[in-house]
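Chapter review: from sequence to fold.
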Amino acid sequence: MQRQTQHWNQTKERGGLGLLTLVLYFYRLGGRWLCKAILYFIIVWYWLFAVTAREASLTYLRQLHDFAGQQSSSPFSATPTWIHSYQHFMQFGLSILDKMEGWLGHIPEQQLQLFGHEHFQQAYQKGTLLVVSHFGNIELLRAIKAEHPQKINVLVYQKHATQFNAFLKKLNDQVDVNLISVDELGLETAILLEDKMQQGEWVIVAADRAPVHSDRVQHIEFLGNDAVWPQGAWILANLLKVPVLAVFCYRERQQLQVHIHKLADVVNLPRQTRQHAIQEITTQYVHLLEQHCLRAPYQWFNFYHFWTK
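The token string follows.
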């Protein structure tokens, strides 16, 4: 369990600030067309030399294929090969480009296909916790709220917060997103966020990577095999007592889609049955993630060995 947590944290991120800065330069030089052409060469290099990420990609795709085959709904006609892994990496590269356009404000809301938008409409100017994953592009939310004065706070791992904050300022010095650095989600974080919730702000937290320095995790099957999931998002929801939405934003067949699911009006974790309650809501979230992996298999970007086995 500890080995898995350290693995994603210590893996060198070749898709970090340097790559983002490079893509931004070419985007400003020649727009999306030039970026797509150059990305093919960048992704080839990334795919060739990021050995661990490449192996993890293929493991995920084959795990998804086996899981989907049990339901007679596999997105692949045969067992995925290294070619599928390369396609997975290419979609990651295109997601960086979409990320760029999202932060620049170049994606209008009219381009998005929305599912469950009524949940967002009910949440505007109200304290809400948005649970996300390393799936697709959560930056597409910026297009949805472009015509609404909604403040957003994003909880990020401290190691990457400062660099990414600086990069956002390069993209757009008017960015209205506040990045909050945390190593662990708990009482101190809840106190920090309580005032923001009372002012009707949103908080975004990822729920698909185990915490760096904590044993607050759950073992739940994902795509047919045991995996470790963090408890932090649900502990935070229990402390804040606000509605919880699960949000997935991604491309499917060139269509930008945003899926909003209501997980709970309020999360309650009774002391006597806390572990069971966390298990239930985490399982609910994991099942949603599985559904979206089946819909868009190349959009899950956890390029490290995810499963415990």
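Two observations follow directly from the output. Confidence is low (pLDDT under 50) at residues 1-8. The chain has one domain: 2-299.
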